[in-house]
Amino acid sequence: MAGLRASKRVIAATRRAAKSGLIVALAAISTGARCGTIETEHLFGFTIGSDVGEVGERELEGSVTGRFAKQNGTYAATASTMSVEFVPVANLRTEFTGAVVSYDIAGVSGLPDRRYIAFGGFSADIRYRLLDRATAPFGFAIGAEPHWGRADEVTGEPANQYGVDFVAAADWEIVPDRVVAAFNLLYQPDTMRSKITGTWSQESTAGVAFALMAQVRSGIFIGGEARYLRKYDGAGLDTLAGQGFFIGPTIYFKLSEKAWMAAAWSAQAAGQAATSAGSLDLVNFERHQARVLFGVNF
């Protein structure tokens, strides 16, 4: 009888231990699912992540963005930037950028031929993270990038261009430390004064972007991005001028603890310009867009 009671006590203790172990394991899994380790600040090519870096972080960043091919002729426009980033307080990212632009336009309908390289302008990027994936189901940040440019972005016409790019960015880890997705809402109003004619004009761009990246090896991610953009005449989304849908691959490399590089390419898969027929908008947008980014912490 005593042996039977002892056996029952052992079984009960084993059950309690198993139950406690299961609770601990579930808690660990839950914590791991909420606290991913993927850094999304620079992970994408055209999309923006919600991460903003650590307090005191300083970084030198560069990018080269190319836009190629219109309806006919030769069209190539590039913007090369160099930026300094600093995180002064928790969840606040600041960045100051200078740009050099180049245009090679020949035989494109509606555009004068141009070929030059010149200083392009300045911009300042301010981004604030409202939700951190470490403590919330997803990350969320808002940002504004005021900028001044010296040329019309599409035509390359000398001009003073003023605008602000607004973004709302959300991201979440679908598989912790393996697969991450991001979603952006975009609004970009611009005002421009031509240096040739002296006339003022306004336009705006609104859109959404979606990205999905998977870590295939430690520090190496591959995936893709899709963007739907609508161009309007007027800063307040007044009259639709055209729309384009872009899609393409993205790759990211963490080169070292302080250095990284990313590259992305997008092709216009569908679109429509208000002033011309066709399945693509090659008036307001290009057929191909490509971007290379890199950065070093210091």
List keywords for this structure.
1 helix, 12-stranded antiparallel beta barrel, Lipocalin, 2 domains, 298 residues, mainly beta
Describe this structure in words.
This protein is mostly beta strands and 298 residues long. It has two domains: 1-34; 40-297, Autotransporter beta-domain (Lipocalin, Beta Barrel), CATH 2.40.128.130. It is 11% helix and 60% strand. The protein has one helix and twelve strands; from the N terminus they run αββββββββββββ. Strands 1-2-3-4-5-6-7-8-9-10-11-12 form a twelve-stranded antiparallel beta barrel. A hairpin with a 7-residue loop joins β4 (114-131) and β5 (139-151). It is globular, with a radius of gyration of 25 Å. It starts with a helix and ends with a strand. Residues 1-11 and 17-35 have low confidence and may be disordered.
Portion of residues within helices: 10-25%
Q: Given the C-alpha coordinates, what overall shape results?
A: globular
Show unreliable segments: 1-11, 17-35
In angstroms, what separates the terminal alpha carbons? 73 Å
The level 1 CATH classification of the largest domain is: Mainly Beta
How many domain regions? 2
CATH topology description of the largest domain: Lipocalin
Rg, alpha carbons:
25 Å
Give helix and strand order, one letter per element, not per position.
HEEEEEEEEEEEE
* Largest sheet features: 12 strands, antiparallel, barrel
Please state the average pLDDT score.
90
Label the structural class.
mainly beta
